[in-house]
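INFO batch 0412 | record 1 of 1 | parsing
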Amino acid sequence: MSVGVVTFFKYTHLGFYRHGNDNYHEPLAMEVMLSSLHEWFQDRISLEDTLLWDDETPGYSHCKKVYLKSIEKDEATGEYIIILWRAVGSGDGVYGIRADARLDDDTLYDANDAADGARVIWGEASYYWFIPSKNLFASIRFPNSIADTNMMNKFFKDFICLHANIREKNREVKEGKQGAYTCVSFPATSEDESGNLWFRIYSKQYTNLTTRADLNAIARDITHFVKREVIAARVENQPDWTRLFGGLPFISSEVTKDTSKVEVNIEAKPTADELRRILDQYGEEYAGGMEGWRNIGFRKEGVGGICWLNSFVVKSVLTVNDTIASGIDSTGHYTASRIFTALELTRDGLLAPFARDEQEEIAVS
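INFO prediction complete | emitting tokens
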């Protein structure tokens, strides 16, 4: 059995916006975006065919290469599983897929395999579960995979700009400080609007704190923020500890401990809004889960111990059976269909917190 950490996200921006102005925008439905990608994928033959650009596309020659290994839809629920493949290095410590392998060929190579001179795209998988009916998605991080929502959002942005045919677009090559780049804009569709819009896609982690009352109650008793990190034990590194909180007015610069495993206690008296900002920033910078010593939390007046911020992030786990056919799959990599099979047993439990949120919203309205 392999266990994947499931972390939920929602989109804060998904659609077409004016530069520097959110007052007018034209939203893009998650289902429309996913359906367009799914349709495009049907015409791809091999993994290398799913790279959204090539080295001749102006402005993309130095970008990280990300491929679409799989996108499958569950027709019963309308949900999707997407598997991205981020190319890395030359194969040490990672798996690879033949560049010309058919998309239904799940054969993996490691650095010790003889690939008979074949072109192998060495990389790391990342798994995403999209639930359009609830306007949310989740990353599923296994021991042998990565979770990088910024990478995934950039993949969607490149797809919408370079390949999707969901609406009219203007594509032109411009000159910038770093050379030529591709600029894609979208004409406004409203009769009362003119000019061009640009595609934006930003997401944030879900937290268990949803109401101002919750935030006020917690913020009222906070006395210190705590940050743990592993760094070289040198005095000159101390100023780095205030970077996460540098823009907030309630921060003291006092550092109480500095070792190779560092715990820094920072005096704090945040408001509810400031606590929300820290939770949002935590979700962006620590997306994918905490590992080992590293973490951020707070101490409360009259309460012993530390409350870590990841306890407020909506997380769960998904167990996938490593027994396939008559053998054991030891690669730690999974097909979309195997993930859907695993979700059959746990889907309702994983989505239960969001059903409660919907009921609370109805009660408030």
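INFO post-check: The chain has five helices and 18 strands.
INFO record closed
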